[in-house]
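Hi F.,

I've been meaning to write this up properly since the lab meeting, where we talked about keeping a consistent format for the predictions we share between groups. The idea is simple: the sequence comes first, exactly as it goes in, then the C-alpha cells exactly as they come out, then a line or two of notes. No screenshots and no reformatting. I'm using this chain as the first example so we have something concrete to point to.
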Amino acid sequence: MSDIVPTRLCTHTADALAVNNRCLEELEGQPRIFEAEDSQFIPESIRCMIPKKLVLKVSAQNVHATQVMLTKNIDLMRGLSNGSRGVVKKFSKAGYPVVKFFSNGDEIEACFDFVVPIRFAVRIPGCDEPACRRQLPLQLAWAISIHKSQGLTLDAVEVSLERVFAEGQSYVALSRARSLSSLRVITFDPSVIKANERVVKYYDSIKENAALEEEEENFVLRKRSRLSSEF
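Output, unedited:
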C-alpha cells in the first residue's frame, strides 16, 4: 500500500478541509473539477459526505497521487465498500477518474475501468422527500473529520487526540482503524478525553451490582462453612 497515505482523522471539520486543500495544492498536474447535479437546492449547512464540488489531480510524474475514499458500497464481493481507500492514477477518455483501490492492505483488481457518477439521497430538514445528488462516489481522503468518519472502517489511519471536545469522540476515532497495525496516534492528551455521564453511571452500577453479588456469595459460603463445622 505504498501509494496510500494514512487518512488523518481531525477533531474539527475546518482542519480536515485545510489538510485536503493543502495536499491537493501541492500536487502537480491540472485539476479536474466535478460538479454535482442536484434535484433541488441543497444548503451547504447540510452535513453530507457527497461534495458539491470535487477537485482531483493526477501528478505529471505519477509519483504522488490524489488520495480518495469511496463514499458508497460499489462491489462488496471485491471489497469496494464505503470507506475503501484508493488513489487516482489517471483520467479516462470520457474524463472520469481511474482509481487504484486497496482493501485490507491488498490491491484490488477493480471490476470497472473508471469511477462514474451515481445518485445519492440527501435528507433535508423540513422536506418530506430526500433530495437527489448525482456525483462521483469519492471524496478527498488525506483527512476527514472524526464526525464524518462514523460508520467507516479504514485501512490506514492516523489520529490527533489533543483537541478532542465531545463525548466519545476519541472512541469513534480509534475504532475506525481496521486493526491496531493500521492505526497511528500522533498526539494524545488524556485530560481532554470525555465519557458520557449516563455511560459512566451505567458501568458504575454494574460494578456496584457485581460487588453486591460477590458479597452475597461470600456470606453464603461463610454460613455454609460454619454449619459444616458445627456438624
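Notes:
Residues 7-192 form one domain.
Residues 167 and 196 are 6 Å apart (CA to CA).

If this format works for you, I'll send the rest the same way.

G.
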